[in-house]
Amino acid sequence: MKKLSYLSLLLAFAGLTIFSACKDDDDAKPAAPTATAPSSIPSVTVGGSVDITFTVNTPGGYKSASVTQSAGSATISSQPTAGDQTGSVVVSYTAGTTAGAASVTITVTDNSDQTVAQNATVNVSASPVPTISDIPETATVAAGGLLGPVTANLAAEDGLASLSVTKNGQAFGTDVTYSGETSATYDFQYQTSVEEANSTITFVFTVTDSNGDTNTATHVLTVGDLPTKDVFSSAEGTGTVTWSSDTVYVLRGFVFVNDGQVLTIEPGTVIKGQPGQGSGASALIVARGGKIMAEGTAESPIIFTGLADDLNGSVPNEENALWGGVILLGKATNNNNSIANEKSIEGLPTTDDRSLYGGSADDDNSGIMRYVSIRHGGSVIGSDNEINGLTLGSVGSGTTLENIEIFANLDDGIEFFGGTANLKNAVVSLCGDDGIDLDEGYRGKIQKVLVWHTTQTVSSSDPRGGEWDGGVGADEEAMPFGSPSMANITLVLEDDNEQEVTQKEAFLFRDNIAGGLYNSIIVGHQGAAAVEFRADKESSFDRYLADELNISNNIFYNVNGVTDGANFANLFNVKEENGTATPADVTAFETDMTTNNTFVNPGFGTGVSRFTPTASEVTSDLMTGLPTGLDDLSYKGAIDPGATDPFFKDWTLTYDAIQ
Q: How many angstroms separate the Cα of 457 from the Cα of each of 420, 505, 506, 655?
């Protein structure tokens, strides 16, 4: 009896195993088939015929298809081969004797006997429908290339009325109207952009006749890569040359624009840097006496990025150090006089004289950079030595720097080493260290700059929204004093709860720098707004006491942990690096700061308005009569609250990142 029971258990277990195996086989079925109807509604006259193409996907292998229709007749004229996973089912449809909408439905079955049904609508017209022909179904061009011109032939027995075009479902171009002619031609061409690389674009052409009958033609354009050209490091430099938007230029090492050379870069051009660290890094360097003429537009910015970036999301926003950066070196003065007013710029080998900067020509002109986006840079050259997004060594006031973006650089966003260059309309986003860094006696004007940090992307031990230094080491008291004038700056640190960071000051004036900060907004920083005090030498606090450093008419909120206006004074700090400031001077400083600045939530928006302020204080109590070279704007911060869009719309990656 016991043996029989044991045998019964074995049989039962085997049955369960077989059942389980069968269940697993059922669960392992391939994905169900799918079918897609044509994107445009086909038209046909009463009694006429038209082919309707359905796209099918059958992961389990194609088995069969059937067709039904609401009126007229339909047969399958073409279908995939048995077992195929993709293909097309073409239905030949003949309209009946009644005008109106008819439907054609296919049912597709795969080798696992899974089915899918898909319907297409047919417009059956009582009168002859117009026709549009000679538009190819597909074409492929390189990014930046031209499609066409393509000549389409239009015909309509009842007379032509109009032709319209859509691009990816949106109206494109201007509709063409006709006066009842029975035939016409239409020439079409399309200039692709760099940003459309590795994408597809669907154009649908719709012709309408005088009776309102329509017909369509669809063209699918595949946009490929731009052709590339390697630019290698060499003693000869780039030469005087133009880089055009129909080519991607790949920097292979430290590429110099030498003294006397001019590099012109067309709008829409993409320059990529090879990855690498140390001597294997890549950067574009404009040496003293060289010029860069990089004049992009809002519609066609000039983009510098890493080689791995396809400009279509292949690189995460926070990725950095994929290449080096852009470096401009000029002949303006600085106060680092250790080597006859010249030295080698950080981030480059000191063995190359082309890395030297400095001189006596404060009006020196290194060229133009306008609507330029510099992304994912910051290669490490050595210990504590990374390349900034944009480095400016003794660049003179004759240089134009407007509408500049630095996005996700490992080190600082923009750093000035002396010089007198002015900066206007800049965005520094998601960098690992300081947003704007000033050194060595910089004396230019900076206006309308957004610096956006997040705790996720900050990576250095002492990141600041602004690190504003006068001199260096023993040269802190050297002439010329650093004295920048800055207005309409927005400094933001967002805590995205990704990690803990110990951020230093929101901004720090130190090393004997003077100057001014006006009509700006500082939000969300973990450290104070600070001015350095030293007892052993001249310091920026001395410049403040001498009325040579002015911080006024700015908005502060949630800085140094202060979220209550009653504690406004705690937001500011006299940073005592050497010795102790007198209590009376500290109290006077805090009183001055709280009297001449405002504590209020600026009321930033969301999405594309993420840094657009809404508080009424943004447009009141403005500092006017700003230093020469700065504009008296009607608001505080970098973003105009009255504008429909921020100034960095469309041409920056920052705009995409905040949507």
A: 30, 17, 16, 17
